[in-house]
Amino acid sequence: MNTFCVLHYYRKFIRHVSYRKYCSASKFKDKNSIEKIRNIGILAHIDAGKTTTTERMLFYSGTIRSMGEVHHGNTVTDYMEQERQRGITITSAAVSFPWKDHQINLIDTPGHIDFTMEVEQSLAVLDGAVVVLDASAGVEAQTLTVWRQADGHRVPRILYLNKMDRTDSDVSICLNSIRDKLRVEPLLLHLPIRQEDKLIGLVDLNTLEEIIWTQGRGQHYNRRKLTEKDGQKWEKSMSLHRELIDNLSSIDDQLAEAIIQQETLENIENKLVEEALRRSTLDMKAFPILCGSSYKNIGVQTLMDAVTSYLPSPLDCNTAYQCFESDLSARAFKVQHDDQRGVLTFLRLYSGEITKGQKIYNVARDKTEQTGYLYVALADEYKPVEKVTQGNIAVVSSLKSTMTGDLVTTSAAAATRARTALTAQLRQPARADALLTPAARHKLPLDADHTPEDIADVLLGIGTTIPEPVFFCSVEPPSAGQAQALESALAELAREDPSLRVDADHDTGQLLLAGMGELHLEVIKERIVREYGIEVELGPPQISYREALVGGARVAHAVDRKVGGARQLVNLTMSAKHVKGVPQDKVLKLDKSAESASNLSHAHPRYLTAVRAGLNAALRHGPRLGCPLVDVQVTLHWLEVGRGTADSAVSAAAAHCLRKVFGEAGSVLLEPVMRLALVVPESHAARVMADLARRRADLRDVQLRHGNKVVECVAPLSELVGYSSALRTLSSGLATFTMELLSYREVPPQYEQQAVTNITGF
Length: 762
Ligand code: GDP
Hints:
Elements (H helix, E strand, L loop, with lengths): L2 H20 L2 H7 L5 E8 L5 H11 L20 H6 L7 E6 L2 E7 L7 H9 L3 E7 L6 H12 L4 E6 L8 H12 L3 E3 L1 E6 L2 E7 L4 E5 L7 E5 L6 H20 L1 H10 L7 H13 L4 E5 L8 H11 L18 E10 L3 E10 L1 E3 L3 E4 L4 E4 L3 E5 L2 E4 L2 E3 L3 E5 L9 E3 L2 H15 L2 H7 L2 H6 L8 H9 L10 E6 L6 H14 L4 E4 L6 E5 L2 H15 L4 E2 L3 E2 L2 E4 L3 E11 L2 E13 L9 E3 L3 H7 L4 H15 L12 E10 L5 H19 L1 E15 H13 L3 E8 L2 E9 L6 H8 L5 E11 L2 H12 L2
Parallel strand pairs: 1-3, 1-4, 4-5, 5-11, 6-11, 30-31
Antiparallel strand pairs: 2-3, 7-8, 8-9, 9-10, 12-13, 12-21, 13-20, 14-19, 15-16, 15-21, 17-18, 17-20, 22-24, 22-25, 22-26, 23-24, 27-32, 28-29, 29-31, 32-34, 32-35, 33-34
Helix pairs in contact: 8-9, 8-10, 12-15, 19-20
The chain binds guanosine-5'-diphosphate.
């Protein structure tokens, strides 16, 4: 074992020992009452310092005994091999740690736009967030994206200006970029203190204390009240203190009242300011700004203090889930494969509790499931527990159908009770407004009136569908010997990430990978290479087109041949027509007319299964360009199978018959059409809108919000390839967008040639 391995295992052991202590029953049951819990996320542009900050938080809270460094590749949260290599965080991991009689549950959100599904899921379960900025760069493109996503979920935030040790860091430039780009009023709580150009501490602008970190790993720091004797430092701090109180009192009436009674801005009690800051942060009227340098071990403890002081407890938010009363309600925000424990599902509990081995009811999928073990998590380590209570994060094993984003409860009856209670609340317009976050509003159908029942279903995730992947590519193992290993790796990855689909092309045998974007597929490839040691090759990403029948047709098909001495005899008649939205399991119908019914009643169920297999194979390739066929209703009218005929011959005959049916009916090409939501500063709106028009976008809604245009539109995916970089250029990086599949639509005739080229390559 080399030195690295020894260190690695030592670190694991130490973490385990310290975490056991933290997770001990008494602490979990009694000490952390719900208002002492903070469920937060750290949001940042890549490289702003999210991982470094998280590692310091774990260290100062005593959860780990030594600190990893990103450039050494040994941090706790970046535990996936690929992240170690890249030094960036991709997969969410939940980490819990204690801080000053509070418990902080940190949900590590992924940082790239193509993982918006994962970011959205983790944002949906956060009560608050820390937004980390690189103080030498200010608000960057990704900051803007996650900021607007957090707006969508109404997540209260504090901002942390990291990298204050850098000589090019600048608080006032950061404040200006926060005002300009995020369009919010920042409330500066810290002033960095430098000595000979080196960052040594901060001034707390509320208490007017100087906090100086002593040498070493930053565990020790001293607070001292500033006085007039501090000269310039005092003057500057005092002026910023007055500015803080002044700004805050214009937001918070209670503080304004206290100032009026005192008739001065001086000597306002720190506690009153802190309370006003908390109220304003929870209402998202203000955003406290903290400073530090995580790498130099300065400002992390004060950041954690701010998390406990200003960010919400589970009781301050999530009121939609009160409809479950004391029943369990929890949302799955991450499904992960673990070598020893199998599939693990991370649940955020809103109400009630979950016990080991409990049965749960999945509201989205209308299914009851048996849970296995129950754990609490520290990145890649899990501690078995008997019970997890309201407000906490639980990890359960053995769930098969629960996907990221699903809501679970105790039973179907509990779900029905909750839906009824929530619907009743939603009948009051003010309550509906309070509960319907912009993100939930976005899930309601376009162009339709919404009933309280519709809104309740969206809030509870009833009938949620997994997003359809819109890009696909072929994936090849390096050798035939590794094909099996690749298939099981892909099966595991698809289970973790519902937006990833794996399929085999039955004609060519080639494996196909379908996902949400080009980078999504690229990251999956890298995970296969690093985590499973399979050097896969991906074909070029392609848009997932579909075909739909135009007319209908009916064909009788007969097979009578000898294979290896056995006679294979099949006679069958099938028809097909276009029917919108036929569910997958209802595509095949049996003809109920007297003559057909009497024939089909004699068909062996085995042969009907074989016909279904043939049908599935035929649906994979439409007659026009070989794209999958959708919205088809197939009817079986007649089936005769000779004695001794193989099932495979029946499947092949059904597939052959249907190909003839589809060919006679004819098909049109369908393309994925996306629903886009953009936020663009007014100054750049004209250019962005003109570009959207060129991309065949159909505008649905334009609103003005805080100097930004918020645009909802619908556009074909073929016009949106590479859109994120185009939008960045058009808006100088100030616009952000999210997109998801709305539906498949017929390609207009004038664009068909282009689509054919996209599919066939010529
Ligand atoms: P993430 O991508 O947001 O998780 O950022 P990381 O924590 O991986 O940090 C990115 C790079 O910035 C790494 O090389 C860190 O060592 C460095 N870094 C993080 N915090 C600081 C800081 O406070 N000061 C300086 N100078 N560098 C930092």
